[in-house]
Amino acid sequence: MAERLEGAGSQGERVAAFEAAYRHVAEWRYQVALEGEWTRPGADADDVQATIGEGEWMGYRLSPGAVDMREPGSPAWKLLSELEQVALQRLGGQHQLQNVVTLRDGTTVNGNLLHYVVATRDPATGAPFPGHPDQVRTQTAAYADREVLRRASFEALAELEGARAAGTAEVRDPAQRQAFADAAYFLVQGPEFRRGSDAIMRTFLATAHTRVFDAAPVLPQAIDLDGMVRGQEGFSRVMHEQLRPAPASTGTGPTSATTAERAVPTRTRPGGGLAR
What we know:
Layout: H1 2-6, H2 11-34, H3 46-49, E1 58-60, H4 75-91, E2 96-102, E3 108-117, E4 135-139, H5 143-165, H6 174-189, H7 197-213, E5 217-218, H8 223-229, H9 231-242, E6 244-245, E7 265-268, E8 274-275
Antiparallel strand pairs: 1-7, 2-3, 3-4, 5-6, 7-8
Helix pairs in contact: 2-5, 2-7, 5-6, 5-7, 6-7, 6-8, 6-9, 8-9
């Protein structure tokens, strides 16, 4: 990426360089999956390469009681519980909320949706059947909107690369920090693959930040879920509070914070319905 960006003389060339870097990270993630690393039970490495196509979507169950293998009180449980409450507050009693994303030129595009799903209840008692409580779920944006959002992410990073090339990039500059937060939000809102998107996005964003600011970052722990649940303003607030340059490496671990255990992803089957 660095070599290609050094030779880039226009915004378009910089956008292409960041997209190529993203593709490279996606291929790395696929190769890792082929080696049997970072795969879930029942998952296939090909899912890491398979895109979320037209009419398909991926989602997370935010309600910890509705997700298998979540120990009450664990960090994953607490994270999901917090985000579930954020989602419920934003839903405000409605069953669906459309996140609308404002791009850097002021235009808007639809992002992901939040759903409140009412449980099937026992007609005799009115209580949810065991193991099937009310729950909150996310749903990825439509295919065409996700394409626009990923492109917007690369464009925002290309702006920052232009500042770096001009010698004006500054990691503490509020406007430039916001530009990076925007790039991160657009990318989170535009996942491409059925599996592995979180690792791809985090690795790519850490690499891009290191390039444009000459500083490896500590990313927020739940950057993908924050983006899907909190909305653009809430996500920007989390980035403002938590994004920071990483301390000097000691050689003992990664430079960016790891992501907490995730909720079980789902996707639509052909013709409708959900599949693990």
